[in-house]
Specification:
Blueprint (H helix, E strand, L loop, with lengths): L5 E6 L5 H17 L4 E6 L7 H7 L4 E6 L6 H16 L3 E4 L11 H17 L15 E6 L5 H18 L3 E5 L7 H10 L5 E6 L5 H12 L4 E2 L2 E2 L4 E2 L7 H21 L1
Parallel strand pairs: 1-2, 1-3, 3-4, 5-6, 5-7, 7-10
Antiparallel strand pairs: 8-9
Helix pairs in contact: 1-8, 2-3, 4-5, 4-8
Length: 266
């Protein structure tokens, strides 16, 4: 019987300690869901262990790297592949999974379900056992995201926003804390100008940190915005996705896709 694969869940890392704590909680949840593999957390920057260090430590094992990223932007296309290539050159057997949200490979419907879960928890409070307990007390949605300059990544986030809107029967647009997309304050102002009186902000983040804090603080700036002569209410703001059942399920799916592909090559 072959030894179990080692799964490395790699996040960007942050100076904010809440970020690594959330990633480690997710790693624990994935480990419970997948007792057939050995689960680790790793980081590209700020936190330890760094991905490069951990891959060197695990070079005698089959490793599956799962990027804890919600779009295929710079870190997924450049940083992680470069580190993995070095590990392979040093003798490591390393496979890399898709990012968590890759509609063509699955996980799209799950991410929308996770966003809906967090929005309802913002209203009712966790834990939420039944997703569709009630309609949201909002009339429009913003998908608050970190931001990127990558046009394909921006397009994929817009796709998630549209799917979230369809699932709730509400107008939903993306708003960003940084990067080239529409700033979160502009997204809120846009919906307010179209008549929205109670806006919900879905957090397209895995963990809290500086950029998520910008999304949260944007709601305080909305009080000065008026729509049709009436002040818009402060938005309902959801928590990051963290270790929701949907994120655990997507991560498990990415692990399986890598393991099946690896077995097919043997």
């Amino acid at each position: 019987m072959s030894p179990p694969a080692h799964v490395v869940l790699v996040a960007h890392g942050s100076r904010d300690p809440r970020s690594a704590a959330t990633v480690r909680a997710l790693a624990r949840s994935v480990a419970v869901a997948r007792p057939d593999v050995v689960v680790h957390d790793a980081y590209l920057d700020f936190d330890a262990p760094r991905l490069s260090t951990l891959l060197l430590r695990l070079r005698d094992h089959h490793v599956v790297v799962v990027p804890l990223l919600l779009s295929a932007a710079y870190h997924a296309r450049t940083d992680i592949p470069a580190i993995v290539e070095v590990a392979r050159a040093e003798g490591g057997r390393v496979d890399v999974a898709e990012v968590l949200v890759a509609p063509c490979r699955g996980g799209f419907e799950l991410i929308v379900s996770g966003l809906r879960r967090r929005l309802r928890e913002a209203v009712a409070g966790p834990p939420l056992e039944v997703l569709d307990v009630a309609g949201l007390p909002v009339d429009a949605l913003v998908l608050g995201a970190a931001g990127t300059r990558d046009p394909q990544a921006l397009a994929s986030i817009d796709e998630v926003a549209a799917a979230l809107g369809r699932s709730e029967g509400l107008h939903c647009v993306a708003g960003y804390a940084s990067g080239a997309g529409r700033p979160i304050t502009d997204a809120l102002a846009y919906l307010s100008a179209r008549g929205a009186q109670r806006i919900g902000i879905a957090s397209y983040f895995l963990a809290p940190g500086l950029l998520h804090d910008r999304i949260v603080s944007a709601k305080d700036q909305l009080s000065a915005v008026t729509a049709r002569g009436q002040a818009t209410c402060a938005p309902i703001t959801a928590a990051p996705l963290g270790d929701t059942p949907e994120i655990v399920a997507i991560t498990s799916r990415r692990i399986d896709q890598c393991l099946i592909a690896s077995e097919a090559l043997v």
